[in-house]
């Protein structure tokens, strides 16, 4: 089952990618996973598919794209406020660094 | 498809005169010649520095003898450090018509501009009768780059370009992907696609070099707009960028300006060798585009999520937009709407087919959006690679000669 707004890229991923802007409180339903969004999510951003512990890898495309810097609960925005690179630090202009 | 046959046997899809300033001091004169002629086939390229540099000389030699270039006008101030004589010799040896104007000997700005317009016009006439020849998909050399990536790039435009690369490689074309700094995190997966284990090791070493270099520079290849578009880390951006390379075997590694010695899929190692010396490897997207063109790319497939608008001098750029919202905002600049994948209207393979068709159309002479809009960006800066020397020498360096 696929949600019209969120995409699972690989079965082993612990995040979903947003394909259409979604609002806080919306219900997300995919096979074996169901949660309420904890914040607004923009196109291209990620939400946690399940609870992710601090230090655990964030998996997208079936590979690690960094590590959680805090415990992340299912359905919350996964971005620079709660994950980091395991290679090179990312720099931003602080806008939309995460909610 | 009809192309232009060059003396070295390579075939171009465009037939341009390049007006080349050899130092920033000659930029205005060269630019004015080009803008006064206002002809799509007269294009401005140049190098701003006054200090000599092997890399930029070799790049310029390769660019001025590119299959899309028919003739060259060099514009020199007269006292700059650029090795004008060597560049000139290489162009003459390639069989192309060349004119050189030295501002200090031509009477100054106004006189040189007038002379430049005259010379460029006669170069255009001179190259108008170059032999036209049938070109096939197997003659194509296509590069790919992403710019202004966001969270959609890696699931729409980039894998669609990958699908197009697979089609091109199946048809015996040559494809180039690049920016090892944007492959950090996918080196192991990439190595599994190397045509030999030794090349696999070289691919990993190439990415490790990029990681060391960027770490010293203090920034990865990651811009604030990437984060606003949903990307978080270098490795996330990398995985998305990596998808542009498709799923075919990787056949070699080339350095900027090195012409692939056989057909197939090549990674361009754009990160300088040794300790960081002249700054960031490529200061903006067009620097990478120019390097792929110097290695013979006849066309560039440019994927964007946030919405880049650039094109390039010498080779046409086709823009593939990853993000449906961006496409709505900037459709006048986009050739292909890969955002339809995000909306569930088309599959990655269907967009791959559409990109492939666009490649054939643009190779046949149809203008891409950026060409129509007059985008002819160009940038060339200083770099250093361990092995530099004659153009002949640069062709035999690097792991591409492993096989």
From TrEMBL, chain A:
<dbReference type="InterPro" id="IPR013974">
    <property type="entry name" value="SAF"/>
</dbReference>
<dbReference type="GO" id="GO:0019698">
    <property type="term" value="P:D-galacturonate catabolic process"/>
</dbReference>
<dbReference type="InterPro" id="IPR044144">
    <property type="entry name" value="SAF_UxaA/GarD"/>
</dbReference>
<keyword id="KW-0456">Lyase</keyword>
<dbReference type="InterPro" id="IPR052172">
    <property type="entry name" value="UxaA_altronate/galactarate_dh"/>
</dbReference>
<dbReference type="GO" id="GO:0016829">
    <property type="term" value="F:lyase activity"/>
</dbReference>
<feature type="domain" description="SAF">
    <location>
        <begin position="13"/>
        <end position="84"/>
    </location>
</feature>
<protein>
    <recommendedName>
        <fullName>SAF domain-containing protein</fullName>
    </recommendedName>
</protein>
From TrEMBL, chain B:
<comment type="similarity">
    <text>Belongs to the UxaA family.</text>
</comment>
<dbReference type="InterPro" id="IPR007392">
    <property type="entry name" value="GD_AH_second"/>
</dbReference>
<dbReference type="GO" id="GO:0019698">
    <property type="term" value="P:D-galacturonate catabolic process"/>
</dbReference>
<keyword id="KW-0456">Lyase</keyword>
<protein>
    <submittedName>
        <fullName>Altronate hydrolase</fullName>
        <ecNumber>4.2.1.7</ecNumber>
    </submittedName>
</protein>
<dbReference type="InterPro" id="IPR048332">
    <property type="entry name" value="GD_AH_C"/>
</dbReference>
<dbReference type="GO" id="GO:0008789">
    <property type="term" value="F:altronate dehydratase activity"/>
</dbReference>
<feature type="domain" description="D-galactarate/Altronate dehydratase second">
    <location>
        <begin position="3"/>
        <end position="126"/>
    </location>
</feature>
<feature type="domain" description="D-galactarate/Altronate dehydratase C-terminal">
    <location>
        <begin position="138"/>
        <end position="383"/>
    </location>
</feature>
<keyword id="KW-0378">Hydrolase</keyword>
<dbReference type="GO" id="GO:0016787">
    <property type="term" value="F:hydrolase activity"/>
</dbReference>
<dbReference type="Pfam" id="PF20629">
    <property type="entry name" value="GD_AH_C"/>
</dbReference>
<dbReference type="InterPro" id="IPR052172">
    <property type="entry name" value="UxaA_altronate/galactarate_dh"/>
</dbReference>
<dbReference type="Pfam" id="PF04295">
    <property type="entry name" value="GD_AH_second"/>
</dbReference>
